[in-house]
Specification:
This protein has 165 residues and is an all-alpha fold. It is built from six helices and no strands. It has two domains: 32 residues; 121 residues, Four Helix Bundle (Hemerythrin (Met), subunit A) (Up-down Bundle). It is flat, with a radius of gyration of 26 Å.
Length: 165
């Protein structure tokens, strides 16, 4: 009995294509379900209301506190947008520089330094927002706010989890 007949090769090719198609379809389905969480807001207004509701519910904010905090969020958001826009421009410049045939390391170091300063400014802006929120909270709310921010910025990081082990 011949192992590599035309019929056997055809059957193996069909099985290979079938397995490949099933793997592709299952990968697409998996990624659609995974990205579903990120697309839960239909528009910016819906997202804005969710964030407002999140802080109000988690911290137990009164109407007065909520009305004070909302304008703060807008001010900080504008500042964060400016910093993030600058970071995006620096990243683009970095990619352009490393794609050149003759890479100038001095320029790369300069770009890296600017990037680090912008990241520092970004973290400081988050810190300023935290302190502005904290001013408006009572003692119990301050503890809850600390828990939210510590989970978001410190304890979620993979590096921190590795260091803990």
């Amino acid at each position: 009995m011949k192992l590599f007949t035309k019929r056997n090769i055809l059957i193996l090719a069909i099985l290979f294509l079938l397995v490949t198609n099933i793997a592709t379809i299952s990968t697409i389905i998996f990624h659609k379900q995974k990205n579903y969480r990120h697309k839960r807001f239909a528009n910016k207004k819906e997202r804005k209301e969710f964030i407002r509701f999140f802080y109000k519910k988690k911290l137990g904010l009164s109407e007065k506190q909520d009305n004070i905090i909302q304008p703060l969020r807008g001010v900080h958001k504008k500042k964060l947008f400016k910093i993030k826009d600058s970071i995006h421009k620096i990243k683009k410049r970095f990619v352009e520089e490393i794609s050149k045939t003759n890479i100038d390391t001095i320029t790369l170091l300069d770009i890296s330094e600017k990037y680090g300063k912008l990241q520092s400014k970004l973290n400081m802006q988050y810190t300023y927002y935290y302190f502005d929120l904290r001013k408006e909270c009572d003692k119990k709310q301050k503890k809850l706010l600390f828990d939210i921010y510590s989970k978001r910025f410190l304890f979620k990081s993979k590096r921190y989890k590795r260091m803990k082990k």
